[in-house]
Amino acid sequence: MTLAERVLRLDNCTVIDCIQPEPLRHARVTLRNGRIDRIETATAANGAADGAVEAIDLQGGFLLPGLWDSHSHPGLAIPDPYRRTDFESEADRALRALRNTQDALLVGVTALRCTGDQGFVDVSVRDAYRTGLLVGPRMFVSGPGLRITGGHGANGRIRPLYVDPPLEVDGPDEVRKAVRTNIKYGVDWIKLAVTGGIAGHREGMDEVQMTADEVRSAVETAHNKGIKVCAHLGSATAVKMAVQAGIDCVEHGYLLDEEAVGMMAERGVAYCPTLSVTHDEPYMRRHIWPEHSLKRALEGAAAHERGFRLALAAGVKIVNGADLNPIVDTALPEIEWVVKSGMRPFDALVASTRSAAELNGVADQLGTIEVGKLADLVVVAGDPLVDINNLRRTQLVLKEGHVVVDHRAGSWLHDTEQLKTRLETVLVGRGMT
Asked: In terms of Cα–Cα distance, which of 66, 62, 61 is closest to 400?
């Protein structure tokens, strides 16, 4: 071992690699310079390893790839019944995004896809983590979303004082200009609001807002630069139109039908269902959702679940994301919701790891436990293949081979406020990306 090498051995664990449904038991995994160097059973490990190598006995824990939340808004407060965020500065928004994303590490979320944030706050936070200025999840970001004038999420006459609202665009030319602007500022994705949804006063899930020409303009402009496009979509009619226009991922899909999911499966369009936003009534009431949003969400829950089951049966690639904040409190329940709605635990884990990495173009580096890949990993105390709720029993979180969260010293903390007091366990080290 050379002086520059950094080697960590993880002993006595069960590996769920998110490739094969059957886990590797009695395993030992060696990490070298931030990457997975060796995966073996303890019986095949040729006796004791080099005593100079740092080793952690996982005591039978379950080792998984780091988890993803594939639909997040780190800087936003959603909902915001008292409109406090209308008077925030970009600095306020950035501080919330930093806290929200760093807290996500506490429950094993090592990567995020951000589907709309104002002021390009998500771009700045992503870059702070990529350069090693700060430690946090890997982020794949869209910057401000695009909606029509008065489209999804528009509420009333008050305009935010310091931070611009989502970009309002009408017609293919305005859409093209906005897409080019977002790409100029460094986004990884373009986010469109094609239909109405839950948030706004005067909208509905089935309301088609963008035209086919507007969606095509966005897709052509983004794809020309190698950038993918995702879209907030409620109605099946709008999903079919957007799929024909070439979008890469359907968000929500509240009212999917068989034809829509068939088109998605045939064309390889991914689906992020965000079941939490129509199913988690205790969350909605705890966070004081406006009555119109609460009513619309709960009334749409049954149709939302039917559409999810159709997509599952059709073989659509599914990625998991909650669309709720704080991420530390909502990412794992979203995985539980898809299992409650018919997804096998193994497939739910794949949707939270491998499929998300594939969607974001980084499956050669992340998303599975394979030799040569980056060591973004999570250890949980119970088997999530038996009970998906065991994902809540986080013990260790590693990013590129560094232990950044260690819950082993104390009992697992279920309460979010208590979790936040454990931020000192996130070891802020230079040189981590």
From this structure: 66
Angle between helices 121-130 and 90-104 (to 10 degrees): 50
- CB-based contact 272:311 (threshold 8 Å): no
φ, ψ dihedrals at 35, nearest 5°: -125, 160
Q: Whole-angstrom Cα distance, residue 9 to residue 37?
A: 10
Instruction: Note down pLDDT in tens along the chain; length 433 residues.
Output: 544 688 999 999 999 999 999 999 999 999 999 999 999 997 765 544 555 689 999 999 999 999 999 999 999 887 676 677 778 888 999 999 999 999 999 999 999 999 999 899 999 999 999 999 999 999 999 999 999 998 887 766 666 656 667 889 999 999 999 999 999 999 999 999 999 999 877 888 999 999 999 999 999 999 999 999 999 999 999 999 999 999 999 999 999 999 999 999 999 999 999 999 999 999 999 999 989 899 999 999 999 999 999 999 999 999 999 999 999 999 999 999 999 999 999 999 999 999 999 999 999 999 999 999 999 999 999 999 999 999 999 999 999 999 999 998 754 443 434 444 433 333 333 232 3
Whether residue 144 is preceded by a cis peptide bond, meaning omega within 30 degrees of 0, is no
- Output the pTM of the full model: 0.91
